[in-house]
Write a structure and sequence with these properties.
The complex is a heterodimer of chains A (300) and B (321). By secondary structure, chain A is an alpha/beta fold. Chain A is built from eight helices and 14 strands. In chain A, helix 2 packs parallel to helix 4 and helix 3 runs antiparallel to helix 4. Classes of the chains: A alpha/beta (300), B mainly alpha (321).
């Protein structure tokens, strides 16, 4: 990894009327990484990705791609970026090969062979109209359009939402196979952490339109511990309590940092990624979840 | 890009082509009918005017359809050009490829717009011939028939010459701009019809009559006591009655029309007119001005279309998710 950020947001905010879709968001996606953006529906994931793709204009702050500031009416950021919208818009009346030809015409550097090979390998019928394809195949066509651009940064908004498990695996495998060859940076969002965990090496947790934590998955796992012990006040020096869940007689705490030795009454466990994400998305004091994360639902 | 429009374009070409063929057939039928003995004799029953499906009535239908063609193309191709993309979110696909929104729009606008204009320009070749062979002879009121039909008449003017293509481009630009601003195809279609119709009416009533110098013919055109030779007004576009100060009695003060209308409510109309050196007469746009009017009105429409493209570009650049 180099020092240049593939994507950098500084104080980025977008307001819709009186409601903030994204607020004071500062984050960095390192070049060469596969970074997951996770958060419940309505957390601002799509807003962030649309801002990065230049489809939206920030109310505050700025976002840049490889040091180039994103401006909705400029083309400079478009060249190095591929964007996959959560709605997967395609022209339903066009055939698959015509859709790729459209990509060819609208992009300066276009890898026709790569995009075609990708769809051929996955048995997507090129002569079929896009509107007649299954959801999974449509997602693959949308992905091949992104990959045909030969982007240095791929922005994928809920790429696998609404897909059956087979199509999901197919899409992610295709994605990983392609980007591994070219060293493409990938920034993808999902509200399902289990989808992201196997593919990502970095994670950004977004909730209520603000960034909760960012870091590598390894680092997050190493930094967090679950403490289970008797209910009541505990003093923890050197560790931040992220969430507390109280049961009748015992409390479960998720902490960040190295907890002090609390004696034999307390158990120290290694949390999995799911638990860490849930803790960040839940209300800090009461331990109430903001929204269930691992259940599948429609993207916002 | 044009592939997305292939079905619509094919339908358009078939529809307009069919109309063209109908016009050719009708023109020839009218030609041969009028050459017949019955039609050359005023007291015999000429087949041109016989029955509900008479050649004359068919010509009226064709004429009506032709007048509607630019508006129809504006509804079908203009209104959804941007609004359809916004409605189906496909703009998110198009605007994240390698070219800017502005360029995307201008290329799309020019390709579709110029294709429509070329198709209509071809159709104009037929209408130009057709009004001379069918329409011009059959669907005039008696007073106008006395003057002889002419392409300068409001029902022919916008479907001949340059104006047919210019109105097509204008309707397309109007539909596109309304679609981009309203962002809903259905409402854009409705408003295109309303605005296009309103503007066509305004053009006929208030703009076109004064795009070239008018001819003032004193006296009643139907009476034989004509001051102006009939040749000059033959084939002209009759705009109505009006007043003017007699030549050489140039007066400052109220306009001739104001004074004339005051006279019209007085008992002794004729006396009042002569007291004020006023003349009553008919106003025409003469046939010789046809091309002048065509050029000027088309230029105005072209300018308006350009301005509407500007509005569309502005609206597209401003769009954000």
């Amino acid at each position: 990894m180099t020092n240049v950020a593939a994507l950098e947001a500084v104080g980025l905010g977008r307001r819709y009327g009186t409601k903030w879709g994204l607020r004071d968001c500062s984050l960095t996606v390192p070049e060469g990484s596969i970074t997951g953006l996770v958060g419940p529906n309505g957390a601002g994931k799509s807003t962030l990705l649309r801002l990065a793709a230049g489809l939206s204009r920030p109310t505050t702050g700025a976002v840049s791609i490889f040091g180039e500031r994103v401006e909705p009416n400029s083309t400079r950021h478009l060249r190095r970026m591929g964007y996959f919208d959560q709605l997967r818009p395609l022209y339903p009346g066009l055939r698959v090969d015509e859709t790729l030809r459209l990509g060819h015409k609208l992009n300066q550097r276009w890898d026709d062979d790569g995009a075609l090979a990708l769809l051929n390998d996955l048995d997507v019928p090129l002569a079929q109209r896009v509107g007649r394809l299954s959801l999974g195949q449509q997602a693959l066509v949308a992905l091949s359009l992104c990959i045909g651009k030969r982007p240095d940064l791929l922005l994928l908004d809920e790429p696998v939402a609404n897909l059956d498990p087979l199509a999901r695996r197919q899409l992610l495998e295709t994605l990983l196979g392609t980007v591994a060859e070219r060293g493409t940076t990938v920034f993808l969002s999902s509200h399902i952490i289990s989808e992201l965990e196997p593919v990502c090496d970095n994670l950004i947790i977004l909730s209520s339109s603000t960034v909760r934590i960012t870091g590598s998955i390894e680092g997050l796992l190493a930094d967090h511990r679950v403490l289970v012990g008797p209910r009541g006040d505990v003093r923890l020096s050197g560790a931040d309590v992220i969430s507390v869940r109280d049961a009748e007689r015992q409390s479960t705490l998720l902490v960040r940092g190295r907890p002090p030795d609390l004696g034999r009454a307390w158990q120290v466990l290694q949390p999995d990624l799911d638990e860490i994400v849930l803790a960040y998305l839940s209300d800090r004091t009461r331990g109430r979840m903001v929204e269930p994360l691992s259940s599948q639902g429609r993207p916002s | 890009m044009w592939r997305r429009y292939r079905v619509l374009m094919a339908l358009t070409v078939v529809g307009l082509g069919g109309l063209g063929i109908w016009m050719l057939l009708l023109g020839r039928a009218t030609d041969s009918a009028e050459a017949s003995f019955a039609c050359r004799h005023p007291f015999l029953d000429c087949q041109v005017y016989r029955g509900a499906l008479s050649l004359s009535n068919q010509a009226d239908v064709i004429n009506f359809l032709l007048l509607f063609v630019p508006c129809l193309l504006g509804m079908v191709f203009g209104a959804p050009l941007v609004a359809g993309e916004l409605e189906h979110s496909t703009n998110r696909l198009a605007w994240t490829q390698g070219i800017s929104r502005t360029r995307w729009l201008i290329v799309k606008w020019c390709v579709v717009g110029l294709t429509l204009v070329s198709v209509v320009a071809l159709l104009t070749l037929i209408t130009q011939w057709w009004i001379g062979h069918a329409a011009e002879r059959v669907n005039f009121s008696p007073i106008e028939q006395g003057l002889g039909g002419t392409p300068i008449h409001p029902v022919f003017f916008p479907i001949t010459g340059l104006a047919f293509s210019a109105y097509t481009l204008f309707a397309f630009a109007l539909g596109t701009a309304l679609g981009a601003v309203i962002r809903k195809t259905s409402w854009a279609i409705v408003s295109t019809v309303v605005v296009y119709t309103a503007i066509s009416v305004v053009a006929v009533l208030f703009v076109r009559p004064s795009l070239a110098p008018q001819l003032f013919a004193t006296g009643d055109p139907s009476s034989s006591a004509q001051a102006t030779p009939l040749d000059e007004i033959r084939g002209g576009w009759y705009l109505g009655f009006g007043y003017r100060y007699a030549p050489g009695t140039h007066e400052t003060g109220p306009s001739a029309d104001v004074v004339g209308q005051q006279c019209a409510v007085q008992n002794n109309f004729e006396m009042c007119l002569s007291d004020h050196h006023l003349q009553l007469g008919s106003i025409y746009q003469v046939q010789n001005h046809y091309w002048e009017l065509q050029w000027r009105e088309s230029a105005l429409l072209l300018l308006t279309s350009g301005a509407l493209l500007g509005v569309t570009v502005w609206s597209v650049r401003r769009w954000r998710a």
